[in-house]
Amino acid sequence: MVEYIENGRLAGRNEPVIGWYHSHPGYGCWLSGIDVATQKLNQQFTEPFLAVVVDPKRTMSAGKVDLGAFRTFPDNHQAAGTTGAGGNQGNVPLSKIEDFGVHSDKYYSLEVSYFKSSMDQQLMERLWRKHWINTLSQSPLITNNDYTSQKVKDLAEKISLFSKETHKGRVVCRHSARGRCHCRGARSGPRVEQAQDEAVWSDRRI
């Protein structure tokens, strides 16, 4: 980051850096352990500073931008049981659930709003005039085939895992793929079961 700022100054760009962005293709907008460490380090040296995460696959599938903005809590902050990923945690793939759960109380989400300048409007109109014909020759089902297949597979794995644990007389928290809950505070069985049900039903909306 320091090198980037110095190179910008050498190029005559003195604008302050206020954040960074990266993508989570197909697994939602939230911060992993590495993301949390990166954001926390940058917040110590630059304020204000935020992390932006975009999911290009869900953006293509839904036809609207799937984007989240986040900041980390101070080290001495005591989480109140909420998570930073807002309503996206139910859509986290099974392979990412544990990483999400371990760090979900280390950051919080920011409200995101979009705006479009007159220059943006002109650019969008030119692009639309040039590429609108492509919408007649493309099928969303074909374009999103791989993503949809992955979501269905992930859903089947979650249902299978939940069924096995239920038969064993245990209820699995959605934050752990191995049955170990990393959430702070004790959770009653019915509440955890309800959370898992919400995650499953959320993933069915493809």
UniProtKB/TrEMBL annotation:
Its main location: cytoplasm. Keywords: Cytoplasm, Hydrolase, Metal-binding, Metalloprotease, Nucleus, Protease, Signalosome, Zinc. InterPro entries: CSN5_C, JAMM/MPN+_dom, JAMM_MPN+_peptidase_M67A, MPN. The keyword RNA-binding does not apply. SUPFAM superfamilies: JAB1/MPN domain. GO terms for molecular function: metal ion binding; metallopeptidase activity. The keyword Nucleus applies. Residues 1-76 form the MPN domain. It comes from the Eukaryota. It is found in: Cytoplasm; Nucleus. GO terms for cellular component: COP9 signalosome; cytoplasm. GO terms for biological process: proteolysis. Component of the COP9 signalosome (CSN) complex. Belongs to the peptidase M67A family. CSN5 subfamily. This is COP9 signalosome complex subunit 5. It comes from Linderina pennispora. The lineage of its organism: Eukaryota, Fungi, Fungi incertae sedis, Zoopagomycota, Kickxellomycotina.
